[in-house]
Design a protein that fits this description.
Number of strands: 24
Mean pLDDT: 92
Largest sheet: 9 strands, antiparallel
Number of helices: 7
Distance between the termini: 41 Å
EC number: 3.4.21.89
Active site: 52, 170
Strand content: 25-35%
Structural class: alpha+beta
Low-confidence stretches: 1-6
Shape: globular
Transmembrane segments: 24-43
Membrane topology: Single-pass type II membrane protein
Helix content: 10-25%
Radius of gyration: 25 Å
Main location: membrane
């Protein structure tokens, strides 16, 4: 790290040796710079904290996420403490970054665009505002449930730039220009049924003869012996993969196994949160167009709920409604042209995932990278050896 190494010593003058402290300091600076460049532009390690992608990804799977697959994103908030995300270690509220310098969204060339059914890491789109005492929940969901005044009275509320929002990992189910719909829990893309990941989970009704299911056999099949719901001595609700459901249906004590589908009721938590026009549920949803850069759509009171956040938050315009007329940047508007591409993300554990069905589209500037490899996995008190160095599909 001696930047003057090319200079010759004066004749007869002994070369000055660096102290041990200086050598350690130089090595540390080099390691920090190298690690920062690697995690920013090549790959970064992540941990799976929730079961929203089971059984494709398990809690305490440790991943490498490729930044070069879609092209490394240039940091938008460059002034930050190395190896931190949004909060300083050992603190609750101290930011690990400064917003004194903010760069616009740019991305270096990558090997491909985000493709349908890729497993993708991205910044949480509704993470622009956060209630710090309840960071695991969407701030906007809290507002819808409890009201703004209550949320602000009971929490420290802060804002975060795009690249400092919480990292999420989901499967990309639809890309820009697609039309997505969900019928009885089954996803359709452009009117064609989407493939079901073989390790994906959803909830099933399991009806028995009245005899309990053997918990030891359930554990051998990697089924949680505690059902997601118990309704009487013969009716249970389990989170199962398609293979697990088929296996349970062969058991003598099981009379029926069928997917759980929520009744079509007004559900304020489901996107676009407009129950006057859209009585959708997470199991019956759409059809919904996924915005594509350069495409112009008509906007009115029946569809503005789809696009208001895109227009005002993600693409930085001033959006107002006055006397039945929409104004964008103080000009009357009945249409809008998208400036970015958007994606639709869903967890493989379909009935236990906070995903696009609840908060909508993922803008392209929120994309972090492609999930690539499980390098370590830990659960049930030991290493899951069969998951080590497993590629993610």
């Amino acid at each position: 790290m001696n930047l003057a190494f090319w200079r010759r010593n004066k004749e007869g003058q002994p070369k000055k040796k660096k102290s041990a402290v200086r050598e350690w300091f130089d090595a540390a600076i080099f390691a920090i710079i190298a690690a920062t460049l690697i995690r920013t532009f090549i790959f970064e390690a992540y941990t799976i904290p929730t079961p929203s992608m089971e059984k494709t990804l398990l809690v305490n799977d440790f991943l490498f996420v490729s930044k070069i697959s879609y092209g490394p994103r240039i940091p938008m908030t460059p002034l930050a403490v190395p190896f931190t995300h949004h909060t300083l270690p050992f603190t609750k509220y101290s930011k690990a970054y400064s917003e004194a310098v903010q760069w616009k969204y740019r991305r270096l060339p990558g090997f491909s665009d985000v493709e349908r059914y890729d497993v993708v890491v991205f910044n949480f789109p509704e993470g622009d505002t956060v209630a710090l005492e309840q960071q695991e929940q969407s701030y906007y969901q809290l507002i819808r449930y409890y009201g703004r005044d209550n949320v602000w009275e009971q929490n420290h509320v802060t804002s975060r730039p795009v690249d400092k929002r919480e990292n999420y990992i989901k499967r990309c189910m639809a890309v820009p220009g697609d039309t997505l719909s969900i019928k009885e829990g089954v996803v359709y893309i452009n009117s064609v049924q989407a493939p079901i990941p073989p390790e994906s989970e959803r909830r099933y009704w399991v009806k028995t003869t009245g005899d309990p299911l053997n918990p030891t056999r359930l554990d051998e099949l990697d089924i949680d012996p505690n059902p997601a719901g118990v309704f009487d001595s013969a009716l249970f609700r389990y989170d199962l993969t398609p293979g697990m459901a088929n296996m349970l249906s062969t058991w003598p004590v099981v009379k029926e196994v069928k997917p759980y589908v929520r009744a079509a009721t007004q559900e304020i938590q489901v996107f676009p949160h407009d129950t006057a026009h859209y009585k959708w549920t997470e199991h019956n949803f759409g059809p919904l167009y996924i915005p594509k850069k350069g495409v112009t759509v008509h906007i009115d009171s029946t569809n503005i709920a789809f696009y208001d956040r895109i227009i005002s938050v993600y693409e930085g315009n001033k959006l107002e409604a006055k006397n039945g007329q929409f104004y964008i940047n103080d000009k009357p508007a009945d249409s809008y042209t998208f400036k970015m591409n958007y994606y639709w993300m869903m967890g493989d554990n379909r009935d236990n995932s906070l995903d696009s069905r609840f908060w909508g589209f993922v803008p392209e500037d929120h994309i972090v990278g492609k999930a690539w490899l499980i390098w370590m996995s830990y659960g049930h008190g030991s290493i899951r050896w069969n998951r080590l160095f497993k590629t993610i599909k």
